[in-house]
């Protein structure tokens, strides 16, 4: 690629595009030193939608993150026209992709996703980072290969709205995705305190868990204003027959994550200690209601256009496989390493 940063050209081979956003393209890449497959996010600085402060905040956040359940940032390169973020390549698609693909989605599957995201949040919150955009589109499976040990590993992605705050500090910016935002984000001056903190991520994950277990959200309305009123009230139930096959422990965890009073809401560590997470109950393997798959397919079709290009599922078409094989055949690999 003409004009590409010299360091990037030296360290990586850049291949075909695997995703495209409003001001960025994500390309498949290979690290020359060891043959590792990576994702390279190419950001167009000249785009009218490019906001340097937002990108710099995302980079600053990702530099702090080092956890097996978070998508990793490896390297950063820069030239006059583009910024290049070399990131961990995840190929398993979003949680929504996997749920729709599976014939039988169970509580155990939902518990695995929830556990992995909670571990990621526990790490982020300990660093003082709040993600602020937990939703199915940002929860990715590491691998699409059923034989891979990483097939069921979930990664938290897209740190564009993440923010670092000090101890006892709060945030006040209204942000996030409408159906997943916590009550205190909608109204930072709620009676429980001024502003909001990392517990907003727990609320959002509670919404995701609710959807994974029945196929539809606890708060739903075509009007965003009315939707926000429902969220502020925080009143929801577990309607029959859609929740009849779900265990009481699962419903109990959802109820303790979706608490309007942020101070009474469980934190990540407490959620991980909850019996539904820490102890696999006898009902954990039971298949959910028969309508679950249809509901999830509808939701997948509704949110497809909102998926970040860096989070798009990589389908290894023949073109990409041939490119990878060709490039790796020309790579120098140190004696102590093997091509992955």
UniProtKB/TrEMBL annotation:
GO terms for molecular function: ATP binding; protein serine/threonine kinase activity. It holds the Pfam family Pkinase. The keyword Metal-binding does not apply. Gene3D superfamilies: Phosphorylase Kinase, domain 1, Transferase(Phosphotransferase) domain 1. The keyword rRNA-binding does not apply. SUPFAM superfamilies: Protein kinase-like (PK-like). ATP binds at residue 41. Belongs to the protein kinase superfamily. This is Protein kinase domain-containing protein.
